[in-house]
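Entry 14. Structure prediction run on the chain below.
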Amino acid sequence: MASSLSSHFLLQLLLVISIIQSSSAARKISVTDQTQEPLLFQYHNGPLLTGEVSINLIWYGQFRPSQRAIVSDFIASLSSRKPTKAQPSVATWWKATEKYYNLVKTKNSSPLLLSVGTQVLDESYSLGKSLSNKQIVQLASKGGQKDAVNVVLTSSDVAVEGFCSSKCGTHGSSCPGQCAWPFHQPIYGPQNAPVVAPNNDVGLDGMVINLASLLAGTATNPFENGYFQGPKEAPLEAASACPGVYAKGAYPGYAGDLLVDSTTGASYNAHGVNGRKYVLPALFDPSTSTCSTLI
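Output returned:
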């Protein structure tokens, strides 16, 4: 029987915990991979994330208010009490995670409702411009300590241990060839032209993709004993199991047939609050064992 997370908790969503699709060390799953060898996600009997959860943002370095709004509007779009009428939407994308909960028939638990919590600004680089994993944990502790997920976001002039070589997390425009695809030309693989970022910011739009992936994994595998496939130390989770897939027709080096804004030429696949548009990753559908996209 599934368990749910009912007691007070703190999750620190660190920039160093996940290997994202654009990293050279990430597993690349092509259409052929999915066709010949379907992924079989396993539920490991641990709690899923439930109830009202605040997403606290710790901004380390220099970010303009307009940049911070791109991320906070994305989070607000996930579980907005006033859903976006335009479709496809961020809320519809997030609703796909409910399939994980439905499969295990979680009882006596509240639906997961995410909201923007505290935003902490550290514009003076209090720990310097080269951060270790230990210092990232220290920064994460500046957020709320109850029923919260704390997210540290670093500006492009900050070096973080392990970034670019093996992971991206949510790291602005640093190493864009690895961490900001499909908005930047990839370092490896097919060299298709990059798409135009929906909010006209390669770093922040790439950050949203990575944050979306991490949040989906956090909801369905918060303590490394929920839903995942592969080794616990490097699991494939709800979004990381579908690297590089954003719309139907995707193949290595091509994000898929994204929608295009007729005015700006920007690509997107989801509408958010305040008129926002975003590109969000495919999510693994545990009921069909396939990667599911919004469009």
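The chain has one domain: 3-292.
Filed with the rest of this week's runs.
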